[in-house]
Backbone:
């Protein structure tokens, strides 16, 4: 006997069984076909070796509710526990999808089915008169509640100390402290300064998150923490705090990948990350282009920066232009009045010769140098420098290369979705240009709200919750900080 | 019940009932703080036959110590004490090493980068320090013993228990680095000729 997902090619045998079970009240083949092809439904079939039972679940992403669409077991196989087995699998699926309740309708005279549902935790919440036609039988509406796991996540990979709390796909708290101001005088993130700041703020950020979520720590089911990639000394503060919490409250701990956390953040917006998707993560520490086929199982790094991160390039160019740190917002503001075509700055790794090895890699170091040369040349020759034009032209070069490569990856992999993440997403021109190009190319663009784009604890908690909802075991307590953690390592063992 | 945590050199945790040591765990690996902190605390609790819920207070070694490892134990102590609503005490670890040592003592510990953390004591009371010195500046005065061992959770716990009994204020739980974050703002340099 085998239980597997039903596919479109199973439609004929499925309809045969459906008709034999429900006769005049059976679904139309066209309805069943759309059920099987709907991305928001999950149909399972029991084969022995022919189809002997089936059941379907529907859950619209972000709804927190799932419905049992139908369930049927061939007469000769009833009473053998197949219905229960199918229901249990669908309940597990509902948990994985973030549903907080599962609803179903059952014929009021179907005592054995009602007994099964009751034993699975369903309660009657409503009665629909003459729901089933043409027989005119009443339907009971039943509901089972699912308790989604509450996860507290800690993020400390760079200069943001984040503690987030989620319950399943629901965001409960996203508290943050940033040491950005302390880095301002250095013009960039200083690892030791960041790590010191994490230790100073971790206690109050923890308090703030629990207060915001309105829960006490004993309601938390698990701890999640980013163990890489990032600054080792900074990561270790979060890991120390996370392990302290896990031991103090006897909770399982999940060490998760910071970059995959960025991708998973969209779960908190939409109830799921629509897959497959290309993800472009741009921040002061990372510039990574990912192909995500499955959030927990299949994340592939297509390319990344070979020198500076995009955010770093903004910081460095801001310094060249005499602007304070962080450079992104400053350059964005200045560029408003500039001409993006005034100066043609180089687009790194976009030449035909780069396409073999660096098709999806980025390089911003040469661009930064080109801007510096341009500025120095003007100063040396006593020419008046149009700062706004420099800012706008530089910004255009960064945005052009980021979005062109991301869109090229979408096309090459036949994936018509692009998800943006990371602090550089705050850049107005990046968002505008991404929308423009995606609209033209028929690509669906996803940008989570800004507080979920920048480094934050909620995305770490959310990835931890996804692991739990999908039945993953916790990490062992002895995991370490991995500053160069590979994106394929979603969870430390 | 007191939980003491120290990650200044190795990673260690100890449990005291009153002034009696119930258990002590030490991982000596000087680079394994992040890996070992959870096990150290968890095993110390289980060897003492208690759970974290039985604790009344936490003492953490707050340095001086080379940066990275120090913070791991402190972060664990802070999150644990805060969420269990326990008193958190900070121990300057050279005080812990000197605790109970009679006579005149100089204590130095490895500060990395060719430097030493230094403090001088008389009958366990600090006379000078803590400070960072270069080994060439180190002079052991006449009649002083020179101790160079590192701290651990047992020493931190013993000191905390004695100090609290005497009414010493251990409320400062900030890390003691004794060095600045060692960066100077970049002036920005020319890229062209």
Residues:
């Amino acid at each position: 006997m085998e239980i597997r997902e039903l596919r479109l090619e199973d439609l004929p045998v499925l309809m045969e069984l459906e008709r034999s079970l429900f006769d005049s009240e059976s679904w139309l083949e066209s309805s069943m076909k759309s059920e099987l092809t709907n991305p928001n439904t999950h149909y399972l079939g029991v084969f022995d070796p022919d189809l002997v039972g089936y059941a379907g679940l529907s859950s619209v992403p972000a709804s927190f509710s799932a419905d049992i669409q139908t369930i049927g077991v061939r007469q000769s196989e009833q009473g053998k526990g197949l219905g229960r087995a199918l229901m249990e699998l669908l309940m597990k699926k509902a948990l994985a999808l973030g549903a907080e309740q599962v609803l179903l309708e059952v014929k009021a005279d179907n005592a054995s089915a009602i007994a099964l549902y009751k034993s699975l935790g369903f309660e009657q919440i409503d009665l629909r008169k003459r729901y089933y036609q043409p027989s005119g039988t009443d339907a009971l509406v039943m509901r089972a509640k699912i308790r989604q796991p509450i996860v507290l996540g800690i993020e400390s990979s760079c200069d943001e100390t984040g503690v987030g709390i989620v319950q399943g796909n629901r965001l409960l708290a996203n508290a943050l402290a940033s040491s950005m101001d302390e880095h301002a005088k250095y013009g960039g993130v200083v690892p030791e300064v960041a790590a010191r700041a994490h230790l100073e703020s971790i206690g109050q950020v923890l308090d703030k998150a629990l207060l915001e979520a309105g829960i006490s720590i004993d309601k938390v089911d698990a701890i999640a923490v980013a163990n890489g990639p990032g600054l080792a000394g900074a990561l270790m503060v979060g890991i120390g705090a996370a392990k302290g919490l896990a031991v103090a409250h006897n909770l399982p701990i999940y060490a998760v990948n910071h970059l995959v956390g960025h991708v998973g953040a969209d779960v908190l917006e939409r109830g799921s990350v629509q897959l497959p998707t290309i993800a472009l993560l741009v921040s002061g520490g990372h510039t990574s282009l990912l192909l995500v086929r499955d959030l927990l199982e299949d994340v592939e790094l297509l390319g990344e920066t070979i020198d500076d991160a995009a955010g770093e390039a903004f910081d460095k160019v801001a310094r060249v232009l005499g602007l304070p740190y962080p450079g992104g917002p400053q350059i964005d503001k200045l560029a408003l009045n500039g001409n993006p075509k005034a100066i043609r700055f180089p687009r790194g790794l976009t030449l035909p010769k780069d396409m073999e090895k660096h098709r999806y890699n980025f390089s911003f170091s040469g661009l930064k140098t080109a801007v510096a040369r341009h500025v120095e040349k003007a100063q040396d020759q006593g020419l008046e420098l149009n700062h706004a034009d420099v800012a706008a032209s530089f910004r255009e070069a960064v945005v052009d290369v980021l979005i062109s490569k991301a869109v090229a990856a979408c096309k090459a992999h036949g994936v018509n979705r692009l998800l943006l993440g990371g602090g550089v997403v705050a850049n107005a021109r990046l968002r505008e240009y991404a929308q423009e190009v995606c609209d033209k190319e028929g690509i669906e663009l996803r940008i989570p709200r800004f507080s979920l784009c920048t480094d934050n604890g909620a995305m770490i908690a959310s990835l931890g919750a996804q692991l739990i909802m999908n039945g993953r075991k916790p990490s062992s307590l002895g995991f370490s900080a991995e500053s160069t953690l590979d994106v394929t390592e979603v969870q430390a063992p | 019940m007191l939980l003491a945590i120290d990650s200044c050199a190795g990673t260690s945790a100890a449990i005291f009932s009153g002034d009696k040591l119930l258990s002590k765990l030490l991982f000596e690996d000087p680079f394994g703080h992040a890996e070992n902190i959870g096990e150290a605390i968890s095993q110390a609790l289980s060897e003492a036959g208690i759970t974290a819920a039985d604790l009344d207070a936490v003492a953490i070694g707050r340095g001086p110590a080379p940066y990275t490892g120090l913070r791991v134990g402190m972060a664990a102590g802070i999150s644990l004490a805060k969420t269990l609503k326990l008193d958190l005490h900070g121990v300057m670890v050279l005080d812990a090493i000197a605790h109970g040592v009679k006579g005149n003592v100089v204590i130095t510990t490895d500060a990395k980068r060719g430097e030493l953390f230094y403090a001088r004591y008389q009958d366990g009371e600090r006379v000078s320090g803590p400070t960072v010195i270069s080994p060439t500046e180190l002079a052991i005065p006449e009649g002083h013993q020179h101790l160079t061992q590192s701290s651990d959770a047992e020493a931190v716990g013993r000191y905390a228990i004695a100090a609290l009994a005497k009414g010493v204020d251990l409320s400062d739980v900030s890390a003691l680095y004794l060095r600045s974050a060692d960066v100077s703002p970049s002036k920005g340099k020319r890229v062209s000729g």
